[in-house]
Amino acid sequence: MAPAADREGYWENYAVSYYIAEFWNTVSNLIFILPPIYGAIQTYKDGLEKRYLAAYLCLTGMCKT
């Protein structure tokens, strides 16, 4: 969807940011993204098996099921 000349922002519903249409929805979803990323970083630092790293990355939604 191309931006229209009469609308502000790239998509719709811009109350806080030009690039994020539903700002609070985005912020509330960070609780599902940040802990698995932290777990993946810790797994890498601790030198655990790659399967644990893959599991954490899949929890962030980076892997397709």
TrEMBL record:
Pathway: Sphingolipid metabolism; Lipid metabolism; sphingolipid metabolism
Any one GO CC term of the record: endoplasmic reticulum membrane
Protein's GO biological process: ceramide metabolic process; phytosphingosine biosynthetic process; sphingosine biosynthetic process
GO molecular function, one term: N-acylsphingosine amidohydrolase activity
Membrane topology: Multi-pass membrane protein
Annotated residues for binding of Ca(2+): 13, 22
Record keywords: Calcium, Hydrolase, Lipid metabolism, Membrane, Metal-binding, Sphingolipid metabolism, Transmembrane, Transmembrane helix
Top-rank EC class of the record's enzyme: hydrolase
Compartments it resides in: Membrane
Organism domain of life: Eukaryota
Enzymatic reactions: an N-acylsphinganine + H2O = sphinganine + a fatty acid; an N-acylsphing-4-enine + H2O = sphing-4-enine + a fatty acid; N-(9Z-octadecenoyl)-sphing-4-enine + H2O = sphing-4-enine + (9Z)-octadecenoate
Pfam families: Ceramidase (PF05875)
EC id: 3.5.1.-
InterPro entries: ACER
Record function comment: Hydrolyzes the sphingolipid ceramide into sphingosine and free fatty acid.
Family note: Belongs to the alkaline ceramidase family.
Protein name: Alkaline ceramidase
